[in-house]
Specification:
280 residues; alpha/beta; TIM Barrel; 7-stranded mixed sheet; 9 helices; 7 strands; 36% helix
């Protein structure tokens, strides 16, 4: 049975770091001190799927607000492994997330691929499955994990948990009027480079935002170490409720730019469904 670590989403330490982040990312401070955060060269987060068996109202992948069955192709994971070896990248940690990652149809295949990569090329790599731990299917997948895989279990259920109000965009908040969005936030260093079904992003959350807004900014190939993502951060961070500081909540909160984006997303889905029905 793999090692399991229970995870709390909101802590006093995290709130303190969020407040520091708000101050540190003001334009005047950045002009004097430079950018506080950079893309991690040690960590990767893979969003395996946007399927989820829960309905958290402030989901930072929009699995509740914009449901989707989009999965990360196994071939993309194979390309990531190949490119990591070719570039000599020695990752310290790879996290598997979603949605609920165990709902990916080839979850066990992906875990085996990464375990083989670790055994052959990167023996110090930590592979972490981030799960809500809810439901029989999820529990079966976790129980079948091979030894050496760490499980980070949030222990979520039907009752809403405290979340940051992800759908309150900083660009809609007066508090962020003087923010330097190109800074990014501590997620860049704490969580790492994001690989999602839409490609590579400065963080996996940016990939979830792009899925809704449709900017098409995902990169097809593994970026080299030190790749410049500042333009992407300037775009995505102004939309992300993790940028800056906001009090956690159990209720759904949504600013105008997100409300419009979800309406457009639903219309695109309806159009695609209608086209598929005609083609069928």
């Amino acid at each position: 049975m793999p090692a399991t670590k229970m995870h709390r989403n909101i802590t006093l330490r995290r709130l303190t770091l969020d407040f520091y982040q708000l101050i540190r990312c003001q334009r005047l401070v950045v002009e004097r001190m430079g950018y506080p955060y950079d893309i991690s060269r040690r960590y990767v987060e893979m969003d395996l799927t946007y399927r989820c068996n829960l309905h958290c109202c402030n989901c930072n992948r929009s699995c509740t607000q914009a449901p989707s069955r989009l999965d990360l192709p196994v071939a993309r994971v194979a390309e990531f492994i190949r490119d990591s070896v070719a570039q000599g990248r020695s990752w310290e940690r790879i996290r598997l997330l979603g949605g609920e990652p165990t709902l990916h149809r080839d979850f066990d295949v992906i875990v085996d691929m990464l375990s083989d990569y670790r055994a052959r090329h990167n023996p110090l790599l930590r592979i972490v499955v981030c799960t809500n731990g809810n439901g029989a299917r999820v529990c079966r997948a976790l129980a079948n994990l091979p030894n050496g895989i760490v499980v980070k279990n949030t222990g979520k259920g039907a009752r809403q948990r405290l979340f940051r109000p992800f759908n309150v965009a900083p660009m809609d908040r007066p508090l962020s009027r003087w923010a330097a969005y190109r800074c990014g936030c501590r997620i860049l260093e704490d969580c790492g480079l994001g690989l999602t079904p839409l490609g590579y992003y400065p963080c996996a959350i940016a990939g979830g935002i792009d899925r809704v807004f449709g900017f098409g900014r995902g990169r097809c190939e593994l970026p080299v170490a030190g790749a410049d993502f500042r333009d992407d951060l300037n775009l995505f961070c102004r939309l992300c409720g993790h940028f800056g500081f906001a009090w956690p909540t159990r209720r759904s909160r949504m600013s105008p730019v997100w409300a419009r984006a979800y309406r457009r997303f639903r219309k695109r889905c309806e159009k695609q469904t209608a086209v598929s029905a005609v083609d069928g």
